[in-house]
Write a structure and sequence with these properties.
Radius of gyration: 28 Å
Strand content: 15-25%
Structural class: alpha+beta
Shape: rod-shaped
Bound molecules: zinc ion
Oligomer: single chain
Distance between the termini: 14 Å
């Protein structure tokens, strides 16, 4: 069973990309302005800023897409209930207030005490 931490969009990474986007856009505008006003065609500047802009936009879209798809990834938390007397075992969905070793009623098989044996989280992902 592979248990993983849910991926979150790192805010720092996101702000670096947005900063890059703004800077490359500014550089591109400056290069265009230099061409229009002074008649200087700074090909290298234009290519560099355009590719940086493209890269930043691409990364931005990738991150957005990933964080959107994350929202649909359901994290299911399950609770395992076990009987203290017999081998009865049941897995049900986690309910608020569940904690390990908590009394969970009586066993349907032998009438013994049921306790919460463990609580685990499983992430369901499409392969
Ligand atoms: Zn039992």
């Amino acid at each position: 069973m592979g248990e993983r931490e849910p991926r979150r969009t790192p805010i720092f990474f996101m702000s670096v990309i947005i900063f890059m986007l703004i800077m490359s856009l500014a550089a591109l505008l400056l290069a265009i302005e230099a061409y229009l006003v002074q008649g200087k065609l700074e090909i290298i500047n234009i290519i560099l800023s355009a590719s940086a802009l493209f890269l930043a936009t691409y990364m931005f879209i990738q991150i957005r897409r990933r964080s959107i798809s994350l929202g649909f990834e359901t994290l299911k938390v399950s609770t395992i209930i076990q009987c203290l007397k017999c081998d009865y075992r049941n897995v049900r969905e986690f309910e608020k207030g569940d904690y390990i070793l908590r009394d969970a009623g009586s066993c349907p098989k032998c009438g013994g005490t049921l306790i919460i044996h463990s609580i685990f989280r499983e992430s369901k992902e499409k392969d």
